[in-house]
Each structure stands twice: as structure tokens, then as C-alpha cells.
Amino acid sequence: MSVREIHTEIIRPTRSEIAALSRLPVAAIVDALGKKGALSHCLKLQTPGLILCGSAVTALGPDVTVRRAAIDLAQPGDIIVVAADGCKERSCFGGVTAAHMQSRGITGVLVDGMVRDVAELRRLAFPTVARGTTPFNYDYPAGREDGAVNVPVDIDGVRITPGDVVVGDEDGAVVVPRDQVTAVIAEAQAAMSAEAEKWWGRRGQSLGAVQQLADSGYTII
């Protein structure tokens, strides 16, 4: 991937598509993607009860000025994806930055690394997905590592291209490629409706599992 490049324009899904994805459970989205796109279980929602959902503006590396450039270029409804290489020694996001991002209409952050000020993030109700928390942060200005804005980044083997939609809930996080958003919404909605109808029809009934196991050779005692 390219470094020392700042891309100012990205292509985003429509706001109605992002809103539709925000109403879908991450598990249903992963199913609709054929079990692809899910990020590692190590990346967890640090703000329980909230939903992370928005077009990804990517910041490669933990450098503070690079991340600020990503914030400057983000539009209302976007989220910032900080590709900090999974660093666990220092946090690169906290409450002051979250408050500023929120004031600009940015709807959340995914940090491939650590964050701090979690009580403040929860008070702000700012959706935050990260690997964990630590009170230690970088000594700013950092400037120790080249970075980039709005370039494709890889997190846990999942490619995130600027404009893709990241959705996170308490099950985990998933990346929906921008060109698959419409199909994923339709597939997930249809599957959830079919599943609800199936289980509504079976309510209170035996699932027949004991007989199925007996038929397959289990000894029923």
C-alpha cells in the first residue's frame, strides 16, 4: 500500500444504504457475505449498547497529523479507521478526539490498536471498536512513522477500502465492500425474515433432534 499519500475524495454508499446496514445485526451481515469480512474477535466494541456504522475513511499508521487529516477529510456519517498495526503498547485515540469528531458529524471509530478514556467515550455515546484499552498514549507530536489517508488498509487479513461500510455491534465487526452493499442488505433482510417465519412456525414444537440422532446410529438410553 502507498504511504505519504493523502487522497481527498472517496466514493460512498448512500445514506439510506448505511442506515439500512445499521439496523442489521453483524451476524446477519456476515452470513450474507458468505462468512467473509468479519474482523478478529480481538477487535471489540468498547462502548456497549452502541452500533458502529459508516463509510470508512482510513488513516494508515498512528501518526497524529495523519489521523487529523483523516478527520478533516471525513464527512458527516463517516467513521475513521485507524490502521495502527495492532499496537498494544500505546493508545492512539481518546475522549478529546472523539468529542471533536462527534462535533463534525463523524459517527464512530475503528482502531486497530488501543484506546483510552473509555468512560468519556461511553458518556459521549461515541461508537468505538478497538483491541483494548491502556492509559499510555504516544508522545505527540509523534511523526515517527510515515502514513497515508484514504488508502486501502488490511486489518486481520480483511481489506478495508475507503468507502466500504464498517458495522460493529457487541458480536464483533464486519466490513461490507462498497460494491456489495445493496446485495448484502437484500440478502440479510430476506434471510432474517425467513428465519423468523420458520421459528415462529415451530414455536412450542419438538425439533425432532432425538429421533434424527437415533436414525444416525446414536444409542438412545
Q: Please state the overall shape, judged from the principal axes of the Cα atoms.
A: elongated
Strand content: 15-25%
Q: Provide the residue-averaged pLDDT.
A: 94
List unreliable stretches of 5+ residues: none
Using only C-alpha atoms, the radius of gyration works out to 20 Å
Work out the helicity level: 25-40%
Indicate the structural class: alpha/beta
- Counted beta strands: 11
Please provide the ordered H/E string of secondary-structure elements: HHEEHEHEHEEEEEEEHH
Number of helices: 7
Please give the largest β-sheet. 9 strands, mixed
Distance between the termini: 61 Å
Report what the structure shows.
The chain has helices spanning 15-22, 26-32, 64-73, 95-103, 118-124, 181-201, 209-215, and strands at residues 44-45, 52-60, 78-91, 109-115, 128-130, 132-133, 148-149, 153-155, 158-160, 165-169, 172-176. The chain is 31% helix and 25% strand. It has 221 residues and is of the alpha/beta class. The strands form two sheets. Strands 1, 2, 3, 4, 5, 6, 7, 10 and 11 form a nine-stranded mixed β-sheet that branches. A two-stranded antiparallel sheet has the order 8-9. The chain starts with 14 loop residues before the first helix and ends in a 6-residue tail after the last helix. Helix 4 (95-103) runs parallel beside helix 5 (118-124). The protein contains seven helices and eleven strands. The longest helix is centred in the C-terminal third of the chain and has 21 residues, at 181-201. A hairpin with a 2-residue loop joins strand 8 and strand 9 (158-160).
